[in-house]
Amino acid sequence: MVQPTTTASGWPDEPILLAPATAPVPEYGSGSLADLLPTLVARQGAPGFDARIAELTPADRNCVFLIDGLGWEQIKEHPDEAPYLTSLLATSRGGTGRPLTAGFPATTAASLASVGTGRFPGEHGLSGYTVRDPDTGELMNQLRWKPWTPPHVWQPYPTVFQLAHEAGIHTAQVSSPIFQDTPLTKIALSGGTFHGRLSGEERMDFSAEQLAAGDRSLVYTYYSELDGAGHRFGIDSDAWRGQLMFVDRLVQRLADQLPPRSALYVTADHGMVDIPFDEQSRIDFDEDWELRAGVALLGGEGRARHVYAVPGAENDVLTCWREVLGEQFWVASRDEAIGLGWFGDSVDERVYGRIGDVVAAAHDDVVITASVKEPHESAMVGVHGSMTPAEQFVPLLEVRS
Question: Which of 206, 252, 290, 298 could be a cystine partner for 84, CB 3.0 to 4.6 Å?
Answer without folding.
Answer: 252
